[in-house]
Amino acid sequence: MMKRVLLTTYPHAFLHRGGGEREIHLLREALNLDSVQADIYGPSSHPLHTYQDIIHFSMMGGSELLLNEINKTGGQRMILWPNLWFVEEPDTRHLESLTSFLNNFDAVVFKSKAEEVHFRSYFDLAGKDVIRISPLVSPRFSQKDISTVFRESYGLRRYALWTGIIEPQKNQLQAVKAFSGLDIDMVFSGDVRDEAYVRECKKHAAPNIHFIHSMPFGSELHLSALAYCSLYVELPMDFPGTSAIEAQALGCRLLLTRSSWTEEMLSEFALLADPENIEGIRAKAINLLTQPEVQLPCPKVVEMTDVILPLVEYLQHSNAFTQS
Q: What sequence ranges are listed for the domain Glycosyl transferase family (predicted)?
């Protein structure tokens, strides 16, 4: 019988869509290609008792009522996809609350060694199953013969690009200050989670800094923006994430935050910078932009069904897991 899996997350997740929200849809797509029927919790999902497993995205607060209802149903294995990285040290009360939240789950999914090491430095995983996979990258980012629709639509010739949620933790303000006045357009495209923060960014922006609406994920416009940018930039206070891997898959030159995640996943493809050092960011950007632009080799995107194989094996066979 085909396994049925319900994907859940915190209630206000889709008010502002970023990488985590796209990830839920990519996982559903990958699972449904791999003999697992996966639904995202909502009006079109089925009654809870019809699902054998629950995969919950994020440890953001607000999910307690949903988890309580799931626990009343009973019988499902609970799998946590934590997407957790502390920028500042959490206080004791916050850690206690998250530990209580973690107690709802039988297994935890990690997408990198760096994420697992960071998580284990705060939480005890004794008695829980650990599932290790790689980040999910849509096959759209292996597309060839991409049009120049982005440059034509915005009248840009030479530009750097940063896509994703705009908020303090993502640290766009430092890039605004670093790129202001450089001989290149710097384009930020993403949903705004903090209006006051984006106003602060715009206050410091020179005429070469542009903020545009979020582009539909994986659309021709999105692919075009990445394929023809002179530099892809992502300098958050935590780590860049899958959006940087997507840019790398299209052959972009990368300027990224130095972190254990970046060094593990992308260090051979990127120039790394301290996200708080404006002059350092500026110097590294100038260094990259003064080099001749060459078409970088585009690495093969790993099929999503191959990426999630350890997770599928866990779902299909209760003994197919790595004990913590």
A: 158-293
Residues 6+ apart with CB under 8 A from 124: none
| Pair (120, 147) in one structural domain | no
Whole-angstrom distance, CA of residue 324 vs CA of residue 223? 39
Q: Tell me: the pLDDT tens digits for 272-290?
A: 999 999 999 999 999 988 8
Claim: this prediction has a pTM higher than 0.85: yes
152 and 127 in one domain? Answer: no
CATH number for the domain including 174?
3.40.50.2000
Nearest to 215 by CA among 158, 152, 171, 150: 150
* Residue ranges in 13-134 assigned as alpha helix (H): 19-32, 64-73, 92-102, 113-120
Length, in residues, of the chain: 324
Q: For residue 45, give every residue at least 6 positions away whose Cβ sits within 8 Å of its Cβ, in sequence order, or none.
A: 6, 39
Could you tell me if 147 and 283 lie in one domain? yes
Which residues touch 88 (CB under 8 Å, ≥6 apart)? none
